[in-house]
Amino acid sequence: MKTSLIIFLLAFSSPTVFGQGCKNVPISVNVTISYNYTFGGVSFASAVYPDSASAYSDGVNGVRAFFNSCSGDLILDLYSSTRQVGFSFQNFVSTNSYTPGWISTPFFTSEAYLVVNNLLYNYNASASYSFTTGAELGFTPPGGSSKTDDYLCFHNPTANVTGGCLNVNYPDNTSLLVVQHTPANPATGAVETWTVNPDNTNMNLSGTPTATQVGALQLPSHGNSGPINAGQFSMPFQFIVTLK
């Protein structure tokens, strides 16, 4: 039933239905943010982590969690929620003069707006498949204002779906985000699932030091300078998404 609903909503949102533009019909989901990153034979603590073991479920505790039926983007919006999400930027790959001092201490924020780009790319409900994408994980930093979000960006230019961040692929390219789609299995009761992890390929072209799960910290623009690259960090995480 849920799979039929998502196919219907994708068709219903199509510009051809209304003759102009795409009408977003949000598709409610549950997002589990894992305490541990498990990918490619390795497992260790996530640098983007939850406030509890409970999923972030659309409509529960003020959470908004949904697929945008026009863009396919996964949106996790905590601005009106009692839930929080944690970040740890302690494992830096590169820093610069814009790198803020708060990276030395992990923190929780309730002011987060997390976007993973087009999880409905080449959508096929009945197939097991993978693809690569990007993300803009927005958050209010310690001592910051909700009017000026910072972003953890993954925008590798070779991804199947590229993200919206600018000026983030230096000194190294940011890592690909690997999405694994697993279809529902009525025989076992398994539900349709999207699992999102940064790739663990070494992004340092010189080989050492190793730079894996690389995301860039993007700060708001200063004047006409454009968004600012404030350093790159190893940011392993795992999101598990199911339809609500």
Please give a structural write-up.
- The chain is mainly β and 244 residues long.
- The protein has one domain (2-243).
- Helices cover 7% and strands 36% of the residues.
- The chain has 2 helices and 19 strands.
- Strands 1, 5, 6, 7, 9, 11, 12, 13, 14, 15, 16, 17, 18 and 19 form a 14-stranded antiparallel beta sheet that branches. Strands 4-8-10 form a 3-stranded antiparallel beta sheet, with no helix packed on it.
- 36% of the residues are buried.
Mean pLDDT: 91
Low-confidence stretches: none
Question: C-alpha Rg, in Å?
Answer: 18 Å
Give me the count of strands.
Answer: 19
Helix-strand string: HHEEEEEEEEEEEEEEEEEEE
Give the proportion of residues in helices: under 10%
Number of helices: 2
Cα distance spanning the termini: 11 Å
Query: What share of the residues does DSSP label as strand, in percent?
Result: 35-45%
Which structural class matches the secondary elements? mainly beta
Q: Sheet bearing the most strands, described?
A: 14 strands, antiparallel
Overall shape: globular
State the domain count: 1
